[in-house]
């Protein structure tokens, strides 16, 4: 997550972020299972993992993708996130390996903030994959603790962070780069 252009791919052109549908389940599952961020000791976390249609329908899942084909076929999935409202938590966030370093993660976090704000949330909890902690900090998340390991399912401690959603009212810059009262911009 974040960092340089690890995927070695081209710069991202037009990218849309839209609400996922049940038809996206297979593509999102494939993105999770193929993620290089979960190789080696982290592989057990995504082995057999499935983003099912029921999950997509229950939570606010959003997909970043390149525009589709003229024939109506969907575009290439570049990343996605899932926002759980009660309690407020970023449950999943993945950026395709080839899209790493193109700003997709930052766009998804900006979108998450807007979506959370619309839902009336003040903050969103993130239990981070350990290697992704630096990315979340770079987008303004603050550390609030550590979630202890739960072997055998999760054999390592994970950073717990919070993303503040509400904008300050005193004109101070926000963690996501705008000043209170300024629109955050469309993603």
How does this model look, in words?
With 187 residues, the chain is an alpha+beta fold. Helix content is 20%, strand content 24%. The chain is built from 4 helices and 7 strands; from the N terminus they run βααβββαβαββ. The longest helix has 15 residues, at 104-118. It starts with 15 loop residues before the first strand and ends in a 23-residue tail after the last strand. The relative contact order is 0.17.
Give the oligomeric state of the chains in this entry, treating copies of one chain as homo and distinct chains as hetero.
single chain
Alpha carbon gyration radius? 16 Å
Strand order of the largest sheet: 1-2-3-4-5-7-6
* Overall geometry: globular
Strand content: 15-25%
Low-confidence stretches: 1-12, 170-187
Strand and helix order: EHHEEEHEHEE
Major sheet, described briefly? 7 strands, mixed
List keywords for this structure.
single chain, 187 residues, alpha+beta, seven-stranded mixed β-sheet, 4 helices, 7 strands, 20% helix, globular, disordered N terminus, disordered C terminus
What topology does this entry show?
Blueprint: E1 16-19, H1 25-34, H2 53-58, E2 60-65, E3 77-85, E4 88-95, H3 104-118, E5 123-127, H4 133-138, E6 142-147, E7 158-164
Parallel strand pairs: 4-5
Antiparallel strand pairs: 1-2, 2-3, 3-4, 5-7, 6-7
Summarize it.
The chain is of the alpha+beta class. Helix content is 20%, strand content 24%.
């Amino acid at each position: 997550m974040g960092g340089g252009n690890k995927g070695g791919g081209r710069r991202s052109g037009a990218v849309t972020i839209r609400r996922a549908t049940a038809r996206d389940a297979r593509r999102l599952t494939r993105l999770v299972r193929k993620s290089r961020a979960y190789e080696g000791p982290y592989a057990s976390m995504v082995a057999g993992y499935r983003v099912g249609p029921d999950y997509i329908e229950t939570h606010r899942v959003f997909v970043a993708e390149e525009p589709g084909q003229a024939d109506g076929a969907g575009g290439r999935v570049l990343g996605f996130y899932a926002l759980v409202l009660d309690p407020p938590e970023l449950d999943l966030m993945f950026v395709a390996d080839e899209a790493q370093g193109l700003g997709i993660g930052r766009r998804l976090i900006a979108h998450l903030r807007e979506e959370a704000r619309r839902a009336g949330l003040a903050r969103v909890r993130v239990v981070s994959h350990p290697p992704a902690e630096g990315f979340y900090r770079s987008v303004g998340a603050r550390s609030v603790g550590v979630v202890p390991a739960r072997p055998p399912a999760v054999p390592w401690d994970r950073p717990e962070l919070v993303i503040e959603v509400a904008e300050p009212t005193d004109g101070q810059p926000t963690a996501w780069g705008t000043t209170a009262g300024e629109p955050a911009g469309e993603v």
